[in-house]
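User: ok so my PI wants both of these folded by tonight, can you help

Assistant: No problem, let's get them done. Here's the first:
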Amino acid sequence: MCNCNHAVHADVVGSLLRPAALKSARQQFQRGEIDAAQLRAVEDEQIRQAVEKQRQLGLAVVTDGEFRRAWWHFDFLEGLDGVQGYDAEQGIQFNGVQTKARSVKVTGKLGFNPQHPMLADFRFLQQIAGDAQPKMTIPSPSVLHFRGGRQAIDSTVYPQLDAYFADLAQTYRDAIRAFYDAGCRYLQLDDTVWAYLCSDDQRRQIRERGEDPDQLARIYADVLNAAIAGKPDDLTIGLHVCRGNFRSTWISEGGYEPVAEILFGQVNIDAFFLEYDNERSGGFEPLRFIKPGKQKVVLGLITTKDGELENPEQVKQRLQEAAQFVAPEQLCLSTQCGFASTEEGNSLSEQQQWDKLSSVVSIAGQVW
C-alpha cells in the first residue's frame, strides 16, 4: 500500500499486455476448441508469471494484469445484478479509432452478486502474491451511469434516478465488503468519467444530451462517498482518473481544475491515481485541494502509450513541481494508466512494458 517506505512509493495501475499464449487460449476458447477449465489453467499460469515478474522488478504492489478480462470495466459490470451486456450499434470513439461495439444497460434492480466471479479472481491473486500487496481493480460506480445515461436505465425499474443512484451506491458498498471479506486490502476504482468532466468537448456533449456536467460531478461524488462510507480502516481505496486508453489512443483532454474542488476536496478516497504524462493533463495546481496528511497522490508521469523510456531526471523534476502543492511524503509514482485497458493492448512490446515498470521502481527508490 502507498505508505512511506520507498518501495511502496512505486505503484502499478493494473492492466498488463496480454501474452501471446493467453491471447491464443482465449481465441481457442471462443472457437470451442478448449473448455472454460482449460482456459482458466492457461490464465492461472500466465498470471503467476506476471506476478512473479512484478515482484522481481521490486514492486510492492501486484495485480493479475486483468488477464481474465476483455475490458477494464464491462466484465465486472456485467457480473452485477440488474446489469446486462449487449452488442451495441457502434463502439466507443477514441482519438482516431473505435473499440469493439459493446455496452451495458440496467434492466433490473441493481445489486452485488455474492458469487461475482471476480471474487475468485482476487483470491487466486492473493494466493500467489507472496510478500507483495495484491491489488484488485474494478470500474468506479459512475462508469455504469455515465456512458448510457438515462437511456440505458429501464424506466419501469427506475422511474426516478434518485433510487437508481442509491442502489448503485449500496451495490458498491456490498462489493467493497465482499472483496474485503475475500482478503482484499487494496482496491482501486477505475474512473474515466472525472476526466470527461474536465474536457470542454465532452462537457458540450453532456449538455447536448440534456445533462448538466457540474451536477453530474456532485452526484458522482456523493455516490462514491456513500459507497465507501464505513469502510474498514485497513482497506485502502484508490481512484484512478483515466482519460481513456485503447490501442495507445485517448478520449478526453483538459486539466483537473474544473472538478478539482469536488473531486480532491470532497471525495473521501485514500489515493488518487492521476494521469500526468503529457500536456493534455494540465498543471499540478489543482492538487492544492488534496487533503493534507491523509490522501496519497499517485502521479502517472510514465506513459503507457508508447515504449520510449522517460528521462528519469525530468520525472524527478516534475515530482518536485508537484511537491509545491502536495507534501512529498503524500506523493507516489506510477505509469499513467494500465498497458491494456482492453485485451488488444497498447502499442509497445512486453519488454518495453517491464522496462517502464522497472523505471517507476528505480525513480521512486531514488526520490524517496
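One down. Here's the second:
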Amino acid sequence: MDKIVVLDFGSQYSHLICRRIREFSVYAELVPFDISYEELQKHNPKGIIFSGGPSSVYNSDAPVPENKIFEMNLPLLGICYGHQLIVNKYGGKVKRANKEYGSSLLTIDNDKDLLSGVGESVRAWMSHGDEAEEIPPGFQIIGHTESAKAAAIASHEKSVYGIQFHPEVVHTEQGTEILKNFVLKVCGAKQDWTMEGFIDSAVEKISKIDGNVLCGVSGGIDSTVAALLIHKAIGDRLKCVFVNNGLLRLNEETEIETMFKENFNVNFTSINAVDKFLGKLKGVEDPEKKRMIVGEEFINVFTEFAEKNGPFKWLAQGTLYPDVIESGVSKGPADVIKSHHNVGGLPDWLNLEILEPLRELYKDEVRMIAKILKVPEKLFMRHPFPGPGLAVRIIGEVTPTKLQIAKVASKIVEDELVEAGLYGKVWQAYAAVGDDRAVGVVGDERRYGNIVMIRVVDSIDAMTADWTRLPHGILEKMSNRITNEIEDVTWVTYTISSKPPATIEPQ
C-alpha cells in the first residue's frame, strides 16, 4: 500500500493533513518531526509533507528534521512552518512579518503540477507570523497574496514545494485539490486505502492478543464500532459494559440497552452509577476538573467490574485521531487544547492494558466502517456526543436543574432538526446551559430564569467546524418550545463562533 508520511512540527492541523489525503483513498501517516532517516526509510513513503507549527525557523530551538531526509530525493511539500523550513534549508531567507491570520486571496502565478486546475485565484487560510523574504536559488514563485509575495514556491526539478497557507482546512478553497495534485500527480501514489482493508487488518491484529477484553460502550458510534471490531476478532473474550453516569441525553440509558440487546450478539452489562458521578461533580465548576473527574470515575467503575467479573487484560476504548491530537499526545509538539477522558493517562494502579482499535481514524471513516459492519443507520448517523457527556455542556457546576435543562433543550433542538429534514445534514447539534440568567415575562409575571445556548455546526471530522446557517423559522420554533416547555428557561441564544477559534463543545 502506497503511503504519504507527514512530519508533525506541532500544528493543530497536522492530523487533518492525513485526513484530507485519506479522503481520496491514499494512506497518510503522521510521524514525529525528529524521526530518524533510518526509521523514515522503513515507512517507504511515496512522498513527504512537513506540517505547520508554532515555531520560527530562525530560533535556536526551532524543530528541524534530520538533514538526510532532504537527501531522500522524494517529493516534498512544506506547509506554513514547513514552507519556511524549505526556504531556509535550500538557501532562501525567512523574516518576521506582520501576523496574517484568516482568509486571504491567493493569486496563482504558475498552475503547473501543485496548483493545476485550481483556477486563477482562491481564498486560502493563513496562520503565520513569518514569511519568505528571499526564495532559494532554483525555486520560483507559483502563488502570492497581498501580504505574502512568496505564498507558494516550487522547484519542479527537485519536486519540492512550499506553501504558506493551510490547504488541509475547509476554509481554503480547492485545498483538497492541491493536496491531491501533490499526492497523485507529483508523488504518483496509488489510491488503495479502503475501510474494508482497514477492517481486515484491524481484526487480524486484534485476533493475536491474549486475555479477555473489557470494553466501555457509550451507545455512540466510536465505542460501538470498536466493540464490534474486537468481537469480530476475539468473540466471547470481549465483555461490553455500559455505564449510566447521569450525564447522558434524555432517556438515552434505556435506548442504548435496547439497541445492544436487539442488534448485537455481544456480552452486554449495564451499570447504574448516576449517584457516584453526580456526587463527585457536586460543587465543581472548572471544566478540566470535571473532565478529569468523569474520566477517573469511569476507570473506577470499570476496575470494580473487572475485579468482580474478570480476569481482564485489556480495557478497550473508542479513541479517535481528533481525541489524540486535542489531548496533546500526538507525536509532535502540539499544545493541549483540552483533555479527553479516553486518551492515555491511565492511573498506575489500573492493572489493564489499553486497546484502541480506532485510534488512527476520523469520525467519517468510523461511520464508513459502521455501515460495512451493518450497524443500524440510526446509530451511525447519530451526532457525536462528548465522552464526559453533559458535564461539558453544562457551564459551571452540574446541578439537577441545569442537567434537566440540557437534556430537554437538546432533545427539542434535535427533534426540530429531524422535523425540518436537517438532522442528517449537520455535524452536531445540542443545547448548552450555564449560570447566566435573564428576566423573562411569562403570562403577566416576570420570571428570572436560565439562558440556553443552541449550538449547531457543519464539519467533516471535528478538527475544523463552521456554524450552521439555520433558517430563522427553525430557530424561532426551537426557542419557543424551549422557553414554553422548560420552566426554568427565559432566554435562548444561538452560537455563531466557528472552530477555530472556538471549540465545538463549550468546555
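The radius of gyration is 25 Å. Residues 287-309 form the longest helix (23 residues). Good luck tonight!
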